Amino acid sequence: MDKIETYHFAVEPFHVDFTGHLFLGVLGNHLLNAAGRHSHNRGWGIDQLNENHYTWVLSRLSIELTEMPAQYEHVEVETWVESVMKLFTERNFLIRNADDGRIYGYARSIWAMIDVETRHPADLIALHDGDILRYVLTAEEKPCPIAKFGRIKPLLGGDTVVVATHYSDVDINGHINSIKYIEHILDLFPREQHEQHRIRRFDIAYKTESYLGDDLAFFCEETAGEHHIEIRKHVGSSEKPAGEVVVQAKLVWE
Amino acid sequence: MDKIETYHFAVEPFHVDFTGHLFLGVLGNHLLNAAGRHSHNRGWGIDQLNENHYTWVLSRLSIELTEMPAQYEHVEVETWVESVMKLFTERNFLIRNADDGRIYGYARSIWAMIDVETRHPADLIALHDGDILRYVLTAEEKPCPIAKFGRIKPLLGGDTVVVATHYSDVDINGHINSIKYIEHILDLFPREQHEQHRIRRFDIAYKTESYLGDDLAFFCEETAGEHHIEIRKHVGSSEKPAGEVVVQAKLVWE
Hints:
- With about 250 residues, chain A is an alpha+beta fold.
- Chain A is about 15% helix and about 35% strand.
């Protein structure tokens, strides 16, 4: 089995924003599908793991693009595993135009495997006698020329928007789905921001699960052309809720 | 060219709700893609029409299902044109499991073609010397055994929820996209409603466009186990805004 999985998609009319470019959330969804396909085809898919009471959990996702695919373009995603540690694995992505081969950009992600009942992390190397190590492609073998996920500082101030969560936000596990957080983050910005700037780099860290009906407080702070975002559970009626951090994110605009 | 277009999709993990079944909005998106594929392959696609300054506008959509596709299932959509009148065309859909052939349900839709500049409707029969008539499959030739779109009464009372629209709601034309209205409508209902009831039939009529930044007032009234919904532009600060009707919809639960 090849170490690289190639996944194709076309940019559909309802998946582009008002500039005619793919929504970042939809791109994220395609990356996660590609990841799912890669692990499924190698015996490590969620459907296979569930039988063993384990599941993959996305911990970090970083996407860096020189160009966002436009409506009707055909896109090819390559995905592979760069490293496996005891509790985490790094999975990378290359995103290119399937017709002319030009590269839109790259993505990096970090995943843990947890026991679905105890929610405790599993030892990736011990599982299946280290079978997963057979699929590793090191940075020398297959480079991913974007920076790794950097630390995002906790926010203290900034504007706050409270967002209620609904039926459409939730996945099969009853958790707010990873992609919906991306949509809600992009919805914080007015038309002009999206009109005049393109997202060059997007980093997101998933810290805690939130659930259908949770109110989420979005803190947003701008520093040097970057936006730092922190999503916390909105507890009580205070304007600056002290609830758990659910998501941290950083946007770099061009 | 065959009069029926067949379109395939798989039910992806992030496209299912907490019961493990496809989101109705995602199904709607697939139906619209199938429609786009059908008309494109026959020379009537939006991309081709745009050169002639015309575009398709969805006016009505009715979906009736005995079962909603579940996660990882493979779905096959057939679509065809049942009739063409001067200003409207009726397009139907059959939705079935691609592996065992069982039928999930059917859908009906009504489309107009408008001039993108004047927004006036075009005469479908006069265009291209009536070429579109070559693709008609009458109700006798290809039955669609669900009722046509019925009249939805205007609402006078009911609960009101005001929803602000954001970047993610808007399509390439700057309009709130047809699918997002469906999502927002389903988000009106609490977890219990979705847990205990399945949507058997969903009717939606698109009356007027709304735009990024519009506040939309959702009126919802229950009569005899059905929900009638009216979305109006929320103008002024009144609780019962008198703005234009954007969408009317009806949900029948099982």
